[in-house]
Specification:
The chain contains 10 helices and no strands. The protein is mainly α. It has a domain of about 130 residues: AhpD-like. Helix 4 packs antiparallel against helix 5, helix 4 packs across helix 7 and helix 4 packs across helix 9. The protein is globular, with a radius of gyration of 17 Å. The protein starts with 13 loop residues before the first helix and ends in an 11-residue tail after the last helix.
């Protein structure tokens, strides 16, 4: 589940127990990513607060698309699965999501969404490669300076979260297998889902 020992639920107290209870899924389990923060619940709290502020001004579908593109470039299974689960069925069918996750440029998205996802990939691969032309292209699709700032921070904070989990060996929860054999392998592009091998 992780390369470090995490605090078991039965031993949790104080802020750790509170973090576990606040993040417990309706099915009763505590996600593996939450367990990974058990030694520093204050970091989890700070992350949640920062992410909440960043997301508060963003269109949900576009936030999820940019996050998916970021996770794809990072090869981070957990966020691909988590945010893919929001995009499908809320915005896309499983077939559409599979196409977006595999090749968003050929998935039938509009030009603004494609440009935004390409922007996310570019930041992940080399933020110093971003130029004024990239920003101008986003503006040509109608995005304001404030929206571009929001997209940029959504991308960069995702890098922190995804790299933290992958560096600690945290695997996505087994519950993601419920996405079905046609979809979860398309999204689990990095570390495997817990219980699915190394």
């Amino acid at each position: 589940m992780a390369f470090i020992n995490t605090i078991p639920e039965e031993d949790a107290s104080g802020d750790v127990r509170r973090m576990y209870e606040e993040n417990r899924k309706p099915e009763g389990y505590i996600p593996n990513y939450v367990l990974a923060f058990s030694h520093r619940p204050e970091v989890m709290s700070a992350w949640g607060n920062l992410l909440g502020v960043i997301k508060s001004k963003m269109d949900t579908r576009r936030y999820e698309l940019v996050t998916l593109a970021t996770a794809r470039a990072l090869r981070h299974s957990y966020c691909m699965l988590a945010h893919g689960s929001v995009l499908c069925p809320q915005f896309y069918t499983p077939e559409q999501l599979a196409r977006i996750a595999t090749d968003y440029r050929a998935a039938g998205l509009d030009a603004a969404d494609v440009t935004l996802m390409a922007f996310a990939e570019k930041i992940v691969r080399d933020a110093t490669a971003v130029t004024q032309a990239d920003i101008d292209e986003l503006k040509q699709h109608g995005f304001s300076d404030a929206e571009i700032f929001d997209f940029t921070t959504a991308i960069t904070v995702r890098c922190f979260f995804s790299k933290t989990l992958d560096a600690l060996g945290v695997q996505p929860d087994e519950a993601y297998l419920e996405l079905g054999a046609a979809l979860y392998p398309v999204l689990a592009i990095g570390r495997p889902i817990a219980g699915q091998g190394s």
